[in-house]
Amino acid sequence: MHEETVYDALANAHDDAGHWAFGTGFDDPLAGVDTTVPDGVVPADLGAYCLMLGDDALVLAQRLTQWITNAPELEEEVAIGNIALDLLGQARLLLARAGSVGVLGRSRERATESIPDEDALAYFRDADEFRNTGLVEAPNGDFAQTMLRLLVASTVRLAVLARLRQSRDPVLAAIAVKGVNELTYHRDHAARWVLRLGDGTEESHRRAQDGATAVWPLLAELFTATDVERRLVEVGVAVDPAAVRDEVREVLTTVLERATLRVPEWPSDTGPRGRDGEHGEELAELLAELQGLAREHPAATW
Length: 302
Fold this sequence. Notes:
Layout: H1 6-11, H2 43-65, H3 74-101, H4 117-123, H5 134-137, H6 143-164, H7 170-198, H8 202-215, H9 227-234, H10 245-258, H11 281-296
Helix pairs in contact: 2-3, 2-9, 3-4, 3-7, 6-7, 6-8, 6-10, 7-8
Pfam families: PaaA_PaaC (PF05138)
GO molecular function: phenylacetyl-CoA 1,2-epoxidase activity
InterPro entries: Aromatic_CoA_ox/epox (IPR052703), Ferritin-like (IPR012347), Ferritin-like_SF (IPR009078), PaaA_PaaC (IPR007814), PaaC (IPR011882)
């Protein structure tokens, strides 16, 4: 009896249901979850919020994949790849939810109506339509800077998703339950590297300190809510980013101090720039890498 492998599933889409991003033949982690938009929730707001969280995961996953074949050791290459896959999985679920409830700023160039919503949102939006923060789109820098960025990003995301487990939206709550376990590992992995580098050699300490100095200013836009987030907080769906600030600060301070690193000055809030579609050239370059093949062959499936 032939058992289908993951490779068969990717190559042989069932019922012409091939997907660019994720293939087919995988169990649906949201099977049985009520997808009805809760009473009192504006669907477009819910879609926009899912887009924010999904774009953060998608863009950071792409940044991490840039380390494949470049990581300092083989085990780390596997670990980074697995973390990127976790984030890609979160992005898939969140973008699919965004597409299913309707989002403002839908793709300007949909090559075919048969393209799944999550693929259209991942591959056929321009940079100003993305709602990720500057933290995840910033260039990697060296390995130490990447681990500092992963520490910050996973700490913030874990704090948010831990609270989203009580969201009134059943889909967001289910995604959060799954994501918390993944993000706990991501944060632990990054923290271990920061400790190893900070309290290691003189050179590793210097690089870790430089990494913290480069990453810390990117915290400035993380803790101010958008209008969409405020409305969803009021109806019990979203998390106020300001509510996680103290927890994030405590975790990051503890890790850096144990790594014998100086904790950079906490930046003043600048407002949610990335959430409003304000991005630098770095994101456009990243998306060119991410989206190029899909845009060149928009009707293809695999």
